[in-house]
Write a structure and sequence with these properties.
This protein has about 280 residues and is of the alpha+beta class. The protein has 3 domains: about 10-115, Beta-Lactamase; about 120-215, PAS domain (Beta-Lactamase); about 225-275, 2-Layer Sandwich (Beta-Lactamase). About 40% of the residues lie in helices and about 30% in strands. The chain has 8 helices and 11 strands. It has helices at about 10-20, 75-115, 135-140, 145-150, 155-170, 215-235, 265-270, 275, and strands at about 25-35, 40-45, 55-60, 65-70, 120-125, 130-135, 175-185, 190-200, 205-215, 245, 260. The strands form 3 sheets. The protein has a 5-stranded antiparallel β-sheet with strand order 6-5-9-8-7. It has a 4-stranded antiparallel β-sheet with strand order 2-1-4-3, with helices on one face. A hairpin with a 3-residue loop joins strand 1 (about 25-35) and strand 2 (about 40-45). The protein is elongated. It starts with 9 loop residues before the first helix and ends in a 5-residue tail after the last helix.
């Protein structure tokens, strides 16, 4: 696949021409092309002299195909060599410009894609400066992009959540997730989930990129139930009294299946936790 060319300008190539042709004064240079579009640029310095030599050389860089004409005070053979040398220099300059244009085009396309995606995307530096904040992030997190990009978040709740994400990132903890409980303007509650991943340059950690989303009502109820179960298990695990939880009704013989036993139960009875949970006690 060919690299998309740009329309060069006289100014964009002047430095290369002047640095190369400086010792050749007086000189004149004409660069013309019909591909990808008709184009012509000319440079000249010093008074014209009758003994100047003229030589041409092809210039090809990506889609740019043209002809360089160099006129300078040199022997005929030397002029041809000089013309080819300048052509190579300009080919490199044109190729570099095309590469920069291609990178800029790719960057613009990616930025447009990130802005158009329905996912709320963001990125922050390790210091907490917002680098990217797309349209969906504006809607989900409630902060306009213009107010946050290049700055630290002023929203205390979000700032604390992102600080926790950065801390987990630096310490290598996984998963890198934070949840926030917020009130909507109408007073109803909602829960936000922030997920993040590291982005690096080589071995250097630069910051985090992530996705934000609002959990559905069913997901919120499930998360709340999981938190309550985890809290209950923590309380029962450290209780001094023996706790044994079984099925309300036996699903098969010889009796109800054991679902949970705490450490106090295993100490009191002498059964290991594995023995308790494999099935039924005698």
């Amino acid at each position: 696949m060919s690299v998309s060319t740009i329309s060069p300008t006289t100014e964009s190539l002047s430095a290369a021409v002047e640095s190369y042709c400086g010792p050749l004064k007086p000189y004149s240079v004409v660069l013309s092309s019909k591909r990808p579009v008709p184009w012509r640029a000319a440079w000249a310095t010093g008074p014209e002299q009758p003994d100047l030599q003229t030589a041409t050389a092809p210039v090809c860089a990506g889609e740019f195909v043209g002809v360089l004409t160099l006129t300078c005070a040199a022997h005929e053979a030397s002029a041809a060599v000089l013309a080819r040398g300048l052509a190579v220099l300009l080919e490199r300059e044109l190729a570099w410009q095309q590469q920069q244009a291609s990178l800029q085009t790719s960057h613009d396309q990616l930025s447009a894609l990130l802005q158009a995606t329905p996912l709320a995307l963001y990125s922050l530096t390790l210091e907490g400066l917002v680098k990217h904040w797309n349209t969906a992030a504006e809607q989900t997190l409630g902060l306009p992009r213009a107010d946050v990009v290049g700055q630290k978040l002023e929203d205390a709740q979000l700032n604390a959540a992102f600080a926790a994400l950065r801390h987990n990132l630096k310490s290598g903890q996984t998963p890198i997730t934070q949840q926030i409980n917020q009130l909507r303007p109408d007073g109803t509650a909602r829960m936000l989930e922030l997920k993040a991943a590291p982005f690096s340059e080589g071995a250097q950690l630069l910051g985090l990129v992530g996705v934000a989303r609002e959990l559905t009502a069913d997901e919120q109820r499930l998360r709340l139930a999981e938190q309550q179960r985890s809290l209950l298990e923590s309380v029962l695990a450290f209780a001094n009294d023996s706790v044994l939880i079984t099925e309300a009704e036996p699903s098969d013989a010889p009796g109800p299946r054991i679902l949970y036993a705490n450490e106090a139960f295993t100490r009191t009875t002498g059964y290991t936790l594995d023995e308790v949970l494999v099935g039924h006690l005698p």
